[in-house]
């Protein structure tokens, strides 16, 4: 589904674009997609000369679940001294947290196709566990113990 946009980005930006066809949920739950993206990125970076790419200009990018994967790969590679440093990460409406599906961004986009809160929750659960049996609990926020919610409140809150 992304071949045309990747070709456009490569052509218009005069860039090399590597698009990873990672394994999808629910057949392949976490961490399959993450491992695929991480392994592909490491392989690319270890063989960067073969692709004619300047090691100082490597960027990872993703949208939605791919944004989550790009962020996770970036964090994993940040401490690696055996690979070139990533120049940037581009995250397009990334799924970055599953603590609270009632934050302002979810409320503001609750009626936007593709970003329906129920759909996001459904797909997040499929990604993590391979099923979506607890959608209602997640939407209500009862999937997180109160002490954990308090612990992460300074990072994940409407404020």
Automatic annotation (TrEMBL):
Tell me which residues make up the Alpha/beta hydrolase fold-3 domain.
2-132
Matching entries from Pfam families are given as:
Abhydrolase_3
A GO MF term: hydrolase activity
Keywords of the record: Hydrolase
Please indicate if the UniProt record lists Flavoprotein as a keyword: no
Keyword Hydrolase attributed: yes
- The residue range of the signal peptide is none
Q: Which domain of life is it from?
A: Eukaryota
Q: Which PANTHER family match?
A: AB HYDROLASE SUPERFAMILY PROTEIN C4A8.06C, ALPHA_BETA HYDROLASE FOLD-3 DOMAIN-CONTAINING PROTEIN
This protein is called: ADCL4 protein
Upper classification of the source organism reads: Eukaryota, Metazoa, Chordata, Craniata, Vertebrata
Q: Which gene encodes it?
A: Aadacl4_4
